[in-house]
Recover the amino acids of this structure.
């Protein structure tokens, strides 16, 4: 089996594992399966291009991996469930907080019209910019900044995803959601149980918040 064939097979097995995880966590999420569009996006984006060279053999194992600077690329199942909970449409504009290596942004770009993504670590922002450009993504705008502030120049957004854990849902991000907007964010302290939270804003601006499932994320940090 060639290296390319091995990667295709590893990706196929990963998709099967994510489908099993979706069924096993449905008591929390209420979703026994993720949308075909989300699963196809996971299958299309080459995760091995987003991990450090020495981790490429582990790219399609269903677990997070270190990417340097104290950050990680999230477990593929977590990427899938968070993306699915956004209920993205092809015309949606999305804000991501925490670009990291750019993998989650690439998944979002497969499903939505435009992605603004904010990264606090300059080196990660620069690396993600080069990586996504090399892979041909033209609908992703990477911004260096403090994720707590969101990206008001692009608001309101149809969906917001946060890939690091604040101790509470940031009010600034809620403000940047448009009517009908959905936000998915892990909430809690790094040394305690964290919860993946889904927020939905209605046409009047009222927000409904639902706890989805226990998670573990690196903390969301302020830019200094």
């Amino acid at each position: 089996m060639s290296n390319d064939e091995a990667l295709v097979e590893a990706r196929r097995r990963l998709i099967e594992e994510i489908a099993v995880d979706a069924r096993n966590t449905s008591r929390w999420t209420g979703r026994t399966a993720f949308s075909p569009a989300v699963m196809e996006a996971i299958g299309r984006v080459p995760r091995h291009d987003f991990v450090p060279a020495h981790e490429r053999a582990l790219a399609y194992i269903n677990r997070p991996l270190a990417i340097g600077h104290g950050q990680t690329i999230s477990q593929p199942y977590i990427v899938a469930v968070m993306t699915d909970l956004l209920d993205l449409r092809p015309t949606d504009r999305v804000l991501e907080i925490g670009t990291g290596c750019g993998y989650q942004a690439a998944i979002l770009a497969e499903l939505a019209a435009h992605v603004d993504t904010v990264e606090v670590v300059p080196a990660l922002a620069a690396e993600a910019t080069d990586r996504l450009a090399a892979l041909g993504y033209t609908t992703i705008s990477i911004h260096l900044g403090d994720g707590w502030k969101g990206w008001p120049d692009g608001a309101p957004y149809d969906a917001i995803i946060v890939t690091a854990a604040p101790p509470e849902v940031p009010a600034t991000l809620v403000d940047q959601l448009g009517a009908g907007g959905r936000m998915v964010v892990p909430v809690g302290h790094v040394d305690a149980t964290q919860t993946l939270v889904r927020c939905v804003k209605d046409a009047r601006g009222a927000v409904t918040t639902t706890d989805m499932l226990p998670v573990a994320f690196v903390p969301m940090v302020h830019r200094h």
In short: The chain has a mean pLDDT of 94. The helical segments are 3-24, 26-29, 36-44, 76-85, 103-109, 122-134, 171-175. Residues 3-24 form the longest helix (22 residues). The beta strands are 65-68, 71-73, 93-97, 114-119, 140-144, 157-162, 177-187, 194-201, 207-215.
